[in-house]
Structure prediction request, 70 residues.
Amino acid sequence: LSGTDLMNIETEMRSDGEVVPQNPALSTTYCLYIAARAARLNIADMGKLHLKDVTRVVQSVQNFTMLSEE
Prediction:
């Protein structure tokens, strides 16, 4: 992923009627948008995942973004 991908995610979220959070790493929705982009999936596909899988995906994205901030 690149900075352009993150900017495009924010644009996509707004066009989907989602609010872009001030702290994206803590937002489940934002993390799922990042995961969908990284996996080249539609965001709607992420909503079909089981809760346990969603939790794992969100935690992985959060860990990745937090490490990126160091």
